[in-house]
């Protein structure tokens, strides 16, 4: 039986999709369009994800939660539980594989859309302000999680073998990224199942099912979802995409 708070959060995750995703997983984008997308992802949350997790850890959650957060951030920042390379660096390896100069992604002087700044501000606030369980929910359930959260929890999502998944990845299939530059997907395959499990345990194990904390968690995740949708609208606009 699904707990009430879990159901509230899953109902939000069920809607973590955006119309521009069909463009990003299909052929036909230019390198410049891809660079706009990846620059935003990198600078809004990929590069600093370990730091955002560290802020939640810095709020002194209970011991079991400290371990889960420390393990997640150790892997994200060092990769030493999987391939020995940090996830932000693995992300840049994929950029190399796409033939996009790293400067087009990393250069701080290149602008981000206003909604990207707004989404990042929300992530900065949620990670730094108590209660820690709100920051943990926003980062580990919403940011790290996907629209497939419910199916994954129900064990209904079967991933193809990793080599097959890499060959089928849109960046490999449509944009010529060599599969060996997709080690980020390999690292995620190795550790992300554990991060998903830890995420739900941290939040559901420490937020009562009803009451002010549960409401704070649910409304922070709803606010993150709204800010993310606006952010994705902004990136789609900057890429010159139009909703069909
Ligand atoms: Fe990661
Ligand atoms: Fe992770």
From TrEMBL:
Q: Does the keyword Oxidoreductase apply?
A: yes
UniProt-listed InterPro entries: Haem_Oase-like_multi-hlx, PqqC-like
Q: Source organism's superkingdom? A: Bacteria
Keyword tags: Oxidoreductase
Q: Which GO terms label this protein's molecular function in UniProt?
A: oxidoreductase activity
Coiled-coil residue spans:
none
Task: Name it.
Answer: Iron-containing redox enzyme family protein
Per the UniProt record, the source organism is Sorangium cellulosum (strain So ce56)
């Amino acid at each position: 039986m699904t707990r009430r708070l879990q159901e509230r959060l899953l109902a939000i995750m069920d809607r973590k999709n955006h119309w521009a995703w069909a463009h990003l997983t299909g052929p036909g984008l230019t390198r410049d369009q891809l660079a706009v997308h990846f620059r935003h992802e990198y600078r809004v949350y990929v590069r600093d994800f370990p730091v955002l997790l560290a802020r939640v850890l810095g709020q002194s959650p209970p011991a079991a939660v400290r371990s889960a957060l420390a393990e997640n951030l150790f892997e994200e920042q060092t990769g030493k539980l999987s391939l020995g390379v940090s996830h932000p660096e693995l992300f840049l390896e994929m950029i190399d594989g796409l033939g996009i100069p790293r400067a087009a992604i990393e250069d701080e002087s290149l602008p981000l859309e206003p909604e990207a700044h707004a989404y990042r501000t929300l992530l900065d606030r949620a990670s730094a302000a108590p209660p820690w369980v709100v920051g943990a929910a926003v980062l580990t359930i919403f940011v790290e999680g996907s629209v497939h959260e419910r199916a994954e929890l129900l064990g209904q999502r079967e991933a193809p073998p990793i080599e097959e998944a890499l060959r089928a990845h849109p960046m490999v299939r449509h944009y010529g990224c060599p599969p060996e530059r997709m080690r980020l997907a390999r690292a995620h395959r190795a550790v992300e199942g554990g991060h998903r499990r830890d995420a739900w345990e941290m939040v559901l194990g420490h937020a009562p099912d009803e009451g002010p904390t549960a409401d704070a968690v649910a409304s922070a995740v709803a606010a993150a979802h709204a800010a993310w949708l606006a952010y994705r609208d902004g990136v789609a606009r900057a890429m010159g995409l139009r909703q069909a």
